[in-house]
Amino acid sequence: MQYRRLGHFDHSVSILGMGCMRLPVIDGNESRIDEARASELLYRAIDRGINYFDTAYPYHQGHSETFLGRALERNGLRNRVQLASKLPSWAIESPKDFDRYLNEQLQRLRTDHIDCYLLHALKSDWWTKLYDLGVLDFLDRAIADGRIGCAGFSFHDELPLFKTIVDAYDWSFCQIQYNYMDEEIQAGRVGLEYAAAKGLGVIVMEPLRGGHLARPAPPEIQRLWDRAAVQRSPAEWALRWVWDRPEVTCLLSGMNDLSQLEENCHLAGTVQPDSLSNEEKALTNEVRDQLRHRIKVPCTACGYCLPCPAGVNIPRIFSIYNDCFIYGDQRFPHRIYTITMNASDLASNCTRCGQCEAACPQHIQIMDMLEEAHRVLSEKPED
Ligand SMILES: NC(=O)c1ccc[n+]([C@@H]2O[C@H](COP(=O)([O-])OP(=O)(O)OC[C@H]3O[C@@H](n4cnc5c(N)ncnc54)[C@H](OP(=O)(O)O)[C@@H]3O)[C@@H](O)[C@H]2O)c1
Ligand code: SF4
Ligand code: SF4
């Protein structure tokens, strides 16, 4: 395992972190963690040198934190890891809630401090609310009294807001979604470079897009991978692409079995930044472009249709909707649409004024497509 210093925090973390949002469960029930298998995974992860464990208030419907608390209590393991958890931004209604949630999380985790504490999934409306309620003073207090070691935030909105938040506080680190399909969305590559240049550690989440980039590739994609001089699994290609960036401090993977853990740990022991050849980068770009050909709405995200008078974020909705066709799976897009988007940006706000269609150079029937996208993305898909 290799280690890197986490931004302004005075500790080093393993370059592979354990995401505790996808632990093994019983009967497909998210709230029933299979504790025997999850403990085995966790202890093996520590044996392999992983020291960064990422959880959050809502993971596994609250049971991820309680499970981790119990598991790390054994044999002094708590002292061997950097524990990260997150304030549930959506649940905060008054300044008192900051301490109430943090203290509850400390109890669940059976510890007197959380090493790395994040404001969870910031987007513009939650950031504005938290800021107005005094979240930055709360973070200062919690660091001063030792309940948290350092502060960061996780992020799913767009680049200008990301930069605003980076500049608003003396953060030690941030957490962004980053993988070869998402280089230009959310914080993206520019955000990664921006945060790192300001001295923040950068934790990457969803490096395999929740597992989609690791699944057996469709034949036209596999034919591309087969052309590579060195043969690798789809997961290895995707993880190497993220670790190739020297700005990445730690990549989180929601590993849920031992073979995934072993493959990813092996890679984390050997991979070097800036080591992909130009041919390998070009090949990954080709794979990305092929995957993008599977889209349903030919939106180029040019933004000519914006601003919509009703506030609808048209290109972002089409990008999320297109993911259903790129990966043949609605679960991830449903989660992104319903959890990470501001209510004011949703397609349901469309008044059918027609202004966007007149402006769209791709002649997309935006109003009908938005209606369809909203129907598909709002519906909870079956597991
Ligand atoms: N703060 C936030 O807003 C936020 C949002 C999302 C995630 N997170 C955190 O970030 C962590 C990482 O995100 P993620 O779990 O989405 O990561 P990810 O690496 O994109 O996806 C994890 C999934 O990839 C598959 N996988 C991992 N390694 C593999 C391998 N070697 N071979 C084949 N498949 C492999 C597994 O899927 P299968 O189920 O197919 O086996 C696993 O569940 C989460 O666990 C969570 O802690 C935070
Ligand atoms: S038709 Fe709907 S999405 Fe398009 S500009 Fe009008 S309100 Fe916005
Ligand atoms: S104008 Fe058309 S192509 Fe451009 S962002 Fe809007 S919907 Fe997409």
From TrEMBL:
<dbReference type="GO" id="GO:0046872">
    <property type="term" value="F:metal ion binding"/>
</dbReference>
<feature type="domain" description="4Fe-4S ferredoxin-type">
    <location>
        <begin position="340"/>
        <end position="372"/>
    </location>
</feature>
<keyword id="KW-0411">Iron-sulfur</keyword>
<keyword id="KW-0479">Metal-binding</keyword>
<dbReference type="InterPro" id="IPR023210">
    <property type="entry name" value="NADP_OxRdtase_dom"/>
</dbReference>
<dbReference type="GO" id="GO:0051536">
    <property type="term" value="F:iron-sulfur cluster binding"/>
</dbReference>
<dbReference type="InterPro" id="IPR017900">
    <property type="entry name" value="4Fe4S_Fe_S_CS"/>
</dbReference>
<dbReference type="InterPro" id="IPR036812">
    <property type="entry name" value="NAD(P)_OxRdtase_dom_sf"/>
</dbReference>
<dbReference type="InterPro" id="IPR009051">
    <property type="entry name" value="Helical_ferredxn"/>
</dbReference>
<dbReference type="Pfam" id="PF00248">
    <property type="entry name" value="Aldo_ket_red"/>
</dbReference>
<keyword id="KW-0408">Iron</keyword>
<dbReference type="InterPro" id="IPR053135">
    <property type="entry name" value="AKR2_Oxidoreductase"/>
</dbReference>
<protein>
    <submittedName>
        <fullName>Aldo/keto reductase</fullName>
    </submittedName>
</protein>
<dbReference type="Pfam" id="PF13187">
    <property type="entry name" value="Fer4_9"/>
</dbReference>
<dbReference type="InterPro" id="IPR017896">
    <property type="entry name" value="4Fe4S_Fe-S-bd"/>
</dbReference>
